[in-house]
Design a protein that fits this description.
The complex is a heteropentamer of chains A (294), B (326), C (254), D (381) and E (247).
Chain B lengths: L1 H17 L6 H23 L8 H16 L5 H23 L4 H21 L16 E2 L3 E2 L3 H23 L2 H11 L1 H6 L4 H27 L9 H14 L6 H17 L5 H15 L3 H13 L9 H7 L4
Antiparallel strand pairs in B: 1-2
Helix pairs in contact in B: 2-6, 2-9, 2-10, 2-11, 3-4, 3-9, 4-5, 4-9, 6-9, 7-9, 10-11, 10-13
Chain C lengths: L8 E10 L2 E11 L4 E5 L6 H8 L7 E6 L2 E2 L5 H7 L1 E4 L11 H10 L19 H10 L15 H14 L4 E5 L7 H15 L3 E5 L3 H7 L2 E6 L2 E6 L1 H6 L1 H8 L6
Helix pairs in contact in C: 3-4, 3-5, 4-5, 5-6
Chain D lengths: L4 E7 L10 H15 L2 E2 L2 E9 L4 H13 L5 E5 L2 H14 L2 E4 L16 E3 L4 H14 L4 E7 L2 H16 L3 E8 L7 H8 L5 E5 L2 H13 L9 E4 L4 H7 L1 H4 L3 E4 L7 H14 L5 H20 L4 H10 L11 E2 L5 E2 L2 E6 L12 E7 L1 H4 L9 H6 L1
Parallel strand pairs in D: 1-3, 1-4, 4-5, 5-6, 7-8, 7-9, 9-10, 10-11
Antiparallel strand pairs in D: 2-3, 11-14, 12-13, 14-15
Helix pairs in contact in D: 1-11, 2-3, 4-5, 7-8, 11-12
Classes of the chains: A mainly alpha (294), B mainly alpha (326), C alpha/beta (254), D alpha/beta (381), E alpha/beta (247).
The complex binds adenosine-5'-triphosphate (2 copies) and magnesium ion (2 copies).
Chain lengths: 294, 326, 254, 381, 247
Amino acid sequence: MEIFGFPPQLILGQVLIGLINGSFYALLSLGLAIIFGLLRVINFAHGALYMMGAFAAWMTQAWLGLNFWAALVIAPLAVGLFGLVVERAFLRSIYHLDHLYGLLLTFGIALLIEGMYRYWFGAAGKPFTTPDVFRGIWDLGFVIVPKYRGFVVLASLVTCLAVWLLIERTRLGSYLRAATENPDLVSCFGINVSLLTASAYVLGAALAGLSGVLAAPIYQVTPLMGTNLIIVVFAVVVTGGMGSLSGAIITGYGMGVIEGLTKVFYPAASSVVIFVVMALMLLLRPAGLFGKEA
Amino acid sequence: MLRSHVLPVLALLVLLCIAPLVFYPIFLIKLLCFALFAAAFHLLLGYVGLLSFGHAAFFGTGAYMCAQALARWNLAPELALLFAVAVSAALGAVIGFLAVRRQGIYFAMITLALGQMVYFIYLQAPFTGGEDGIRGITPGHFLGVVDLSNPLALYFTVLAVTTLAFALVWRIVQSPFGMILEAIRENEPRAISLGYNPTLYKLAAFTFSAALAGLAGGLKAMSFQIATLVDVTWQMSGEVVLMTLVGGIGTFLGPVVGAFIIGGLEQYLAQSALPAPVILGAAFILCVMLFRKGVAGTAKSLLQNRAPKRSTPDNPETQATNRIVK
Amino acid sequence: MTSSQTAFLQARGLTREFRGFYAVKDLDLDIRAGQVHALIGPNGAGKTTVFNLLTRVLDCTEGQIRFDGEDITRMATHRVARLGLVRSFQISSVFPALSVLENIRVALQRPNGLGMTWWRSRSALDRLDERAHALLLDVQLGDFAHSRAGDLPYGRKRALEIATTLALEPRMLLLDEPMAGMGTEDVVHVTELVRRVARSRTVLMVEHNLKAVAELSDRITVLARGEKLAEGTYDEIRADAEVRRAYLGGTAHA
Amino acid sequence: GPDAIKVGLLMDMTGNYSDVAGRGSVTAAEMAVEDFGGTVLGKPIEVVHADMQNKVDIATSIAREWFDVDAVDAIVDSNMSSAGLAVSEIAVEKDRLMIMNISGSPRFTNESCNPNTIHYVYDTYALATSTGKAVVRGGGDKWFFVTVDYTFGHDFQAQAEDAVASEGGETVGSVLVPLNASDYSSALIQAQSSDANVIAFATAGADTSNAIKQAAEFGIGQGDDRQLAGLLVYINEVDALGLETAQGMLLTSAFYWDLDEETRAFSERYMEKMGKMPNMSQAGVYSSTMHYLKAVEAAGTENYAEVMAKMKEMPINDFFVKDGYIREDGRMMRDMYLFRVKSPEESTGAWDYYEKVATIEAEDAFTPVSESRCYLLKEES
Amino acid sequence: MPKSAVPTWGERPMPDPVLSVTDLHAWYGESHVLHGVTLDLKEGETLAILGRNGAGKTSTLRAIMGVIPRRSGSVKIHGRETIRQKSHAIARLGLAYVPEERGIFASLTAQENLLLPPVISPGGLAIEEIYELFPNLAERRNSPGTRLSGGEQQMLAIARVLRAGGRTIFLDEPTEGLAPVIVERIAEVVAMLKTRGYSMLLVEQNLAFAQAVADRTCVMEHGHIIETFTAADADSHAASLQNHLGV
Ligand SMILES: Nc1ncnc2c1ncn2[C@@H]1O[C@H](COP(=O)(O)OP(=O)(O)OP(=O)(O)O)[C@@H](O)[C@H]1O
Ligand SMILES: Nc1ncnc2c1ncn2[C@@H]1O[C@H](COP(=O)(O)OP(=O)(O)OP(=O)(O)O)[C@@H](O)[C@H]1O
Ligand SMILES: [Mg+2]
Ligand SMILES: [Mg+2]
């Protein structure tokens, strides 16, 4: 049996592989959506934070001699801490301005961070190998999945779900959503909005950092690893619509799969397929798949 | 309005006419191309309130199309430029059609993404020659008379074309059409209720801006005799944003000043020990944090401060800098 | 073709559903040319929704709308405006950074074919000034022509808003709570303004200020829970027990 | 210039290529000048450099300024083939000399060849051909290509396929991947399901690094009967990947620091200055600068035509190249080497990465005169 | 100036004011909107602030709450100076704010809106009690907040702060845009709150409504309080009200 001249195993395999890429898209767009939700800032520095996460993982290994699990904890914390500094030092003083300034500021921050990292660590990057427990592959018959990638999908799903529950199903979530709309009023109810805002950025940054650590064993750890990714994630976010976190997550995985399948059926289009899907979505539903306004 | 610009514009023109005595014509040409590119970008940002983060797509298209026409079809330079403008405008209409459905940050993200898509298309298209670019351009004679292989003739041709383009931008901004653009930026639902179709106006402005960006790219390709992928990258889109930000959003000459500063800075940084991306990143941060009016905006408000100041409760000047779009 | 008998604006079976909730349900509305028609009703009755349906900001789930004999049920928003069915907005709806005069000129541009004119200078708009000034005088804004619209006091913005709307020479005006949030002084002022405007036009108005409603309207429709509760003159409405219970309450002062 | 002999480098000092060229190339040029003695024809020798930021316009305007104002005599390297090609044309216009070390575009000695330009270290044709021929000779005869989807990749693959076929090997499949795609799993799965015994990457830079890293993850080329071949891999990239990941891979290079006494001597001096070993392009900058200075001395003038004539006339013998010579089209002809990346166990220390498996003669590696598209060779023949 | 330790009001021992504002100034950017507001609110009292559009009524409430970035003067809540405190800390001293235009959150359902303000002191109403008081809200509890009609939203805005337990309520134009029947309902609610001993600061345009519920009335113009009078004196001030409010 074949589908369009391709064996179904290959297609199933690609769906699975696509899910892995989708894991990164989902984690990153979730972080973007959280930051956007509360700060109304499109965090252009997200790719740079992702890269910092990967480098932080390398540093915990190379400088501190710690293992992958330690990196998995330390790196998101470190990136989150950096996020805190960025939020306090820069973003905080531009909330009252047009939201585009947030985009421009974080664009500058991204250039600066990536420039510095290239200066310090070189453009070719640093080695980081798969943790020993995850060495090797699972042969599922129809596809071979490196064990580590299985772990990535799992880790991403668990994280996305946990964050989603945290925000949608707790009081914190309604604080976040309300503060998005009218921060002054929320603070009049006795809620510390500036703390809330900072936490949102820290959370988003930490998620980016976590994706970075997860990526380090798969992708070469280089200062530019986040640069091109971020634009794709933007397209994912636009397609999903900025309205909902679940939108960000679902579209993230979905786009990963679509991209994976394109690589089999029509590889020449695989670099643009996500943008094409975005364009189609804009034609059909300008607010995005899960967007609220329409 | 017009009065206040006559002197600076004249001064600038005079300076540009004598500049080749001091600077390399080719370097000046680059600045002019950037200035036109920035003005095209600013037409959207400053007057329609739309921040396009994918304008390199049009700049690059202009460059590739002009290069293609000159190198492979041996068209006359003016025809090659027209071709570049036409294709960029068409691309602008398509991208604009998709993008103007959303506003603000969404618009910025969408243009960025579509711009990146255009980059990939050029990357893969065989005619662009990948990393080597389109080469072998001989610019020929402009309008059949001006020999463009002479650097000075080339410079003055580019100067004339850009000056005309600037005049056109000025005309559009200061036309009844420009008035409606301003109104749409101020209050879109109100404009709709007055019977205007904002999508159409924004699309017209977008297409126009794309056409001008294409002209800038075409001029650059014609002058440098090469068209490369660099002109289509999103970094280029980011650079034009930076130029406008540095120069000053909302001032007619801002983009020109910004383009000159950034173009000059790049050249200077090239021979200094400072890492260029870090400096540009820092410039971005600095402009957003402390210097939102940009150079031209600051100069303007300094000049106005000397004149008796109008004090209204909410000063429009400060409002304009807090707000790029409504 | 609009005789005084057939309605100028006619809605039949107008219905709007929001996920199972009927904001407007099977509403018939007839507004005669030249009248001031008020739409009142308790909060949540669906008045704003009716406005949104009539001006095509919202699509109706069911029903048909005819304006001056033409079916506008599926027409694009800006085209409805061009037909002369124009809605006046709440307070913020001026172009704040433009001058008062420019606000009016923007409204005049399109009807005078100067909307897309990009090849001429703005002085091409000077020929609109005479008409613009006349409109400003009409709403007593003559002295404010060169002020920034955003700097005007509340009541004046309202006046400017209405003048801009009038510039379109609308045949029918829809006013949503024109007196909302206004001091007594401004209410008097705007009432007078609406009265003047209504002399030559059809007006549909939503308003909670009963004093103004009483003074201005020829006919009143009372909505409740999306449906028509009563219709008639002010006195007829006031006498209606249902209306008293659902809307006016005990203190129906006039 | 009247008072000094100046050589210039237009490098990407901070961007993507700053590791493989950048400061390291400038240092190599400075070492050459120092080793030469600092003066030639009684004039001091100066090295100038600029950060061209990967922009053609910056590179060309600086090149013009250097030639016109600063009296630079030769540009001895420039990042990016497009910039390099443009600079080489300016060299023609200004009667100066241009040497290309970092870029591998075959255009320099084909369509865009000119009498002012030398292509010194390698080109993609030579890499593809050498790898193709040497690997097939070593038994790897069924090839699967993972190719970056644009002109560079397409050409690269075609050149390698020709070489493979010329030695009796065959191409059993190929897959295109977008530039900067970062994820190669789809391509690798396809490669894995083919019956190839060589999986070749017609890619460059970060793409190659990602592909190799993920191949290791999928267990390809380590412990199975397949071999990985990187068509364009710099030692810096192997260093960044780590031997754990890169072990077993085959690649072609014009230079390795640990080939013999001479290479070690130079490289250790270089290491002291840069903190890392030189790659082929950086070593090439040293060698070509040295050769240029010797030619100036031999010609007794800095006039480009006479210097160029001397450069083409004098054989090149130094740590970088044995019996090398510059062909009429500007191509420096030299042997290429096929290396295999050592495993961590085989490696005895930092930068001990390669084991030489084969040498490919210059005539075998580079575009033969018969196939050249350079007008300079046509006139001759 | 040293502060006098002895309270300066007459012989009768007065309860400490819940809120005492002295010479409060506030700025939006460069524009100076409050020019020295002085007022106090006693325990259990309802104080109405009247004034034209733009007189600074809302700004007074916002300045007390600390959500205007630049302010000066003195704001004491239960005797504690709060001029340097952040607004969330000020709120926790027992202030409950029902803002102009209701401030209902679109992204939260009616019930989520109701549950949003954290309980700042015990003694607030339980949710069942609230639904009993406002049956409409119970009916529409799962609708998005801003899909409620104007009147429902106003109820929600008041109900919301009652739950949190603040005993000093700021009401900013609670009757704006409401149908007469609903205005009556709101008046009932305010009366009920009075009987329960809440202190209220009420900003109004609706003179009839304000006079029906207020113990004292202030008139504001151009960022100043220009006069204050008790309900008993209201008649003698009719002329000046006419003058200042254009009634
Ligand atoms: N977009 C919407 N989605 C869901 N429900 C809606 C929507 N718009 C209005 N409603 C509901 O429809 C009903 C009517 O609302 P509408 O705004 O028309 O009332 P109204 O008569 O204008 O009230 P008010 O006098 O308070 O302004 C309300 O119960 C409201 O909750
Ligand atoms: N966010 C703001 N930025 C700048 N100025 C403001 C802002 N809010 C209010 N103002 C100005 O402050 C002054 C006082 O406004 P405020 O809202 O306090 O008046 P108000 O008495 O509540 O009027 P209304 O009856 O219209 O609600 C007005 O001149 C207003 O224009
Ligand atoms: Mg309403
Ligand atoms: Mg107010």
